[in-house]
Amino acid sequence: MNILRFQTEQLLNEAAAGIFTALVQTNPRAVLGLATGGTPVGIYKELINAYEQGKVSFKEVTTFNLDEYANLDANHEQSYAYYMREKLFAHVDIQQSNIHIPNGKAADLHAESKAYDAKLNEVGHIDLQLLGLGHNGHIGFNEPADHLQNGTHVVTLAEETIQANARFFNSTDEVPKEAITMGVGSILKAHTLMLVVKGADKAEIVHRALRGPITTQCPASLLQTHPRLLVLVDEEAGRLLV
Ligand code: GLP
What we know:
There is one protein chain. This protein has helices at 9-26, 41-52, 80-87, 109-123, 159-165, 184-188, 203-211; strands at 2-6, 31-34, 62-65, 67-69, 99-100, 128-131, 153-156, 178-181, 192-197, 229-234. It is of the alpha/beta class. The strands form two sheets. The protein has a seven-stranded parallel β-sheet, sandwiched between helices. Strand 2 (31-34), helix 2 and strand 3 (62-65) form a beta-alpha-beta unit. Helix 1 packs across helix 2 (41-52). The structure holds 2-amino-2-deoxy-6-O-phosphono-alpha-D-glucopyranose. 2-amino-2-deoxy-6-O-phosphono-alpha-D-glucopyranose binds next to helix 5.
């Protein structure tokens, strides 16, 4: 595992975007695994900058998003489909047909999960997977549990996750209680993982995830087993990582 520390959030965002940009420059047909939440917003801004400056094209790139809320329409402002459109896709030259996000509105979410895995299998593997970290150690929406799942599946969100994400909705009641997420097996299949963690409130959980025991009770701890794990932290989040 390689841990990179940054003095400012902006420096971290530029470095993370630079790694994605370099990959796409060398492999224009790269398969990127993308994440949502507050953490990647600045990274996506930097990717848009790189595109606008003519440094990179996303025309041949394929993307897979980690997760999506169940029962939110893709046009709902808090859906991850909407988020991705607003924060990245609408501003670059990626082809709509190369974008993959689980459909949280599918009539049969289990069938949707299977179909998502089939598409992932078709491309083989994700070249570079971006990951944020939940306060309870979740990755994607893989919540702490006695057992974790390999492939894409439907999850019931932990109360802590619902509370954490309530800031994006009008009230806690509006936060969906279920989601579809890629499984830890699919995440770990990526060639390279980039875990990005920002802020003092994540210092303890990132320490537990990377230095604590490998346990399903902290899904991010499984990342320790990956041979190419790149961790980008700001000073606050990296405080306990020695
Ligand atoms: C969300 C997402 C995760 C994200 C995490 C942290 O619920 N499902 O993919 O990484 O929680 O979010 P944030 O970056 O807003 O702290």
